[in-house]
Amino acid sequence: MKILVVDDEQLARERLLRLLHRLQPAANCWQAASGEQALVLVERHQPDLLLLDVRMPGMSGIDLAARLDEQAQPPAVIFCTAFDQYALEALQHQAVAYLIKPVREAELARALAVAGRVNRVQLASLAAVAAPQEAGEHASGASRTHLASQTHRGVETMPVSDVRCLLAEQKYVTACSPTAQLLIPDTLKELEQEYGERFVRVHRNALVARAHIVRLQREEDGTWYVVLDGVEQRPAISRRHLAEVKQRLVAG
């Protein structure tokens, strides 16, 4: 993850950089003392996230955020300031969070976690590889060839072609392949719409890759499961989806 800290106070910048070093040891971090300097560094380094003070001489943090909003893929923003009266205006500029100084480590950790989820467009653009449009892709354009997520190790990706199943639990979705599992910020509904016929919904909490289904297996208690090649996961098939799953598999 690439992070730019923007604050006209050197001590404030140094404190945030120390917190980032503990929370995101693998991140590449830069610092800027003004909005004007930040614009130069944004163009040079293309950061994923800005930790941004609101009240600075010259270009304010609000003005800088407005300039960033003009980009096709602006970085995520976490505002860190002592002036909470700016919160509403700050949040209108796609801010992930608004933290009051002195920023506490736990609050910053939560904000960084949110930044990793909501910055999906940027993460996808880092991971996606140009590819021809395939059958089943949604009408808005080519589907991503890779799924991506921000972790403590940085941006991690998984080729969609390797995914055997997508499992939802509470607010999170796990993509499972023969070699890895990746917690991703997408919902099952979004993935189902994006990839069309590539995945079959077998349960409200599970999608499976059609090309990697080995067989459907019924257990003694009457529950049906999907056996997939290369992974131990066997998603259960709900009664609601069983007939449709069988029909789609027969149809090829």
The CATH homologous superfamily of the largest domain is called LytTr DNA-binding domain
Give unreliable regions as ranges: 120-140
Compute the average pLDDT: 83
Computed Rg = 22 Å
| Helix percentage | 25-40%
Question: What is the highest CATH level, the class of the largest domain?
Answer: Mainly Beta
Q: For the largest sheet, list the strands in their spatial order.
A: 2-1-3-4-5
Number of continuous helical runs: 8
The SSE string, one letter per element, is EHEHEHEHEHHEEEEEHEEEEEH
For this structure, the CATH topology of the largest domain is OB fold (Dihydrolipoamide Acetyltransferase, E2P)
**Count of distinct strands:** 15
Q: Based on the structure given, which CATH architecture of the largest domain is correct?
A: Beta Barrel
What proportion of the residues form beta strands (DSSP E)?
Answer: 25-35%
General form: elongated
Number of spatially distinct domains: 2
Distance between the termini: 41 Å
The structural class is: alpha/beta
Main β-sheet, in a few words?
Answer: 5 strands, parallel
Give the key terms.
single chain, 252 residues, Rossmann fold, five-stranded antiparallel sheet, 33% helix, 29% strand
Summarize the structure.
By secondary structure, the protein is an alpha/beta fold. It has helices at 10-23, 35-45, 61-69, 87-91, 105-118, 120-127, 188-195, 239-251, and strands at 2-6, 28-32, 49-52, 76-81, 95-100, 146-151, 154-159, 165-169, 172-176, 181-184, 199-203, 206-209, 213-218, 224-228, 236-237.
